Amino acid sequence: VQPQASGGGLVRAGGSLRLSCAASGTIFSGSGLGWYRQAPGKQRELVATIAWRGSTNYADSVKGRFTISRDNAKNTVYLQMDSLRPEDTAVYYCNTYPSPLTNFWGQGTLVTVSS
User: Fold this and answer.
1) Of 9, 38, 21, 32, which Cα lies nearest the Cα of 94?
2) Which residues pair with 18 in a beta bridge?
3) Per-residue pLDDT reduced to its tens digit, 60-105
4) What is the reported pLDDT for 103?
5) What is the tens place of the pLDDT at every residue in 7-55?
6) Strand order across the beta sheet in which 76-81 lies
7) Does the structure show a pLDDT above 80 at 1?
8) Which of 63, 108, 54 is nearest to 85 (CA)?
9) Do residues 12 and 22 lie in contact, with contact meaning Cβ atoms separated by under 8 Å?
10) What strand order describes the sheet that includes 32-38?
């Protein structure tokens, strides 16, 4: 079962979006989770991570602007994105962390930030 990422869209620089990603509890339960993104022509990169018990880490490029959270009862992970920049434009995916599952990327959700 693929994760269902949603919440992307077109926003102006400085705006906000909240992404959600739901998946089977058998995948999420007990696992660290991460939000990853892939911009056009670039490799996929790690954006933020959250442990099962809630500790978080962020890439330097999003620190102070993005907030990752999770609702274990709903098997859902969130990414609140504030002060968006054009360089945040990418397809965003959720997956497990630190070892992303190979066949668990899903379609992702597209975030486009206009200048």
Assistant:
1) 21
2) 80
3) 999 999 999 999 999 999 999 999 999 999 999 999 999 999 888 9
4) 87
5) 999 999 999 999 999 988 788 888 999 999 999 999 999 999 999 999 9
6) 4-6, 17-22, 76-81, 66-71
7) no
8) 63
9) no
10) 9-12, 109-114, 90-97, 32-38, 45-50, 56-58
Strands (E), 23-88: 32-38, 45-50, 56-58, 66-71, 76-81
Using CA atoms, how far residue 78 sits from 4, 6, 70, 94, in Å, is 12, 10, 6, 9
The rounded distance, in Å, linking the Cα atoms of 1 and 8 is 21
Q: Could you give the CA distance from residue 50 to residue 70 in angstroms, rounded to a whole number?
A: 8
pLDDT at 26: 81
Query: Degrees (nearest 5) of the Cα angle 40, 96, 109?
Result: 35
The residue whose two tokens read 């400085």 is 14
Alpha carbons 109 and 91: distance in angstroms, whole number: 5
